[in-house]
Specification:
65% helix, two-stranded antiparallel ribbon, globular, disordered C terminus, mainly alpha, Arp2/3 complex 21 kDa subunit ARPC3
Amino acid sequence: MHVPDGFINAPVSVAAGVAAAAAVAVSLRGARRELDERTAPLAGLVAAFIFAVQMLNFPVAAGTSGHLMGGALAAILVGPYTGVLCVSVVLLMQGILFADGGLTALGVNITVMGVVTVVTAHLLFRGLLRILPSTRRSVTVAGFVAALVSVPAAAAAFTAVYAVGGTTDVPLGKVLTAMVGVHVLIGIGEALITTATVGAVIAVRPDLVHGARALATPLKLRVDGALVDAPAAAPAQAPAAGRSTKKVWATGLVTALVLAGFVSFYASANPDGLEKVAADKGIDQNVEEHAAAGSPLADYGVKDVEDARLSGGLAGIIGVGVTVVAGTGIFWAVRRRTSDEPTATVTSTATPVA
């Protein structure tokens, strides 16, 4: 659902850019509470994985395809604030390097594909976990529903933005019906990918899944025939917290490289949901050429490489590499900026005990 330049007028694009910038600023502050020395590099990996999977368009209806948006996946794996940043990094890399999503529409894309999907998925996911049993299956079920709903929610959000700043005169009822209808189908694919990915990570390292932290149960002791919470549950969690994430990180990176570098060649060539609706309803009448159309990586291919498979594969690998480096650098910077504050707090509160 990458909105190109020309769909939305300049004033609304600017307003969306301000809203997106505010959301990113809030997310940068919130991410400081979500990130630690283990999750900071994993957040960069999540961004790279989302980039890779977004290259895998899957057919959803006659002549239409869809791809992962990633908001729900990011929110569940690394938290809502970090999730917004992950999707924003992906959209920025796609817009600048691959001419995917307009540069003047970057604020619209971050707001619709990043903020709306993450917030919708996070609220629904947390709400479902409150009423479902505290099990791993509940996490995957809640993730499925949250991911499914987040996609048509983003489609409705785009329609709302178009209603205010659309550059063509198309009946809004028709746009809303078409957008939500096709994106419900795309949402099913989003839900399946999200569930499979979250389930795979939970199976090997549930301690790394932000949305599964509520599954941790306190250590119980039997005292006088009754079970009570152990007074010091933290040591029981220390082994998991101290385990290395290198294996998970390496496996995830290799998976992203394979998906972007090889599997992407077999992705559907049909237009995605927004492109199809725009063409059918006439929303694309005023579409503008992308400012980065001359980029060496435009349209996910390497310029002057004749072989389509090699060109697309190299572009995918480069994209994953750039995204993981940029994302990891940003998340490490966010983490390090506040690394001294918790230390000072612990020191000051621990001194009287000593």
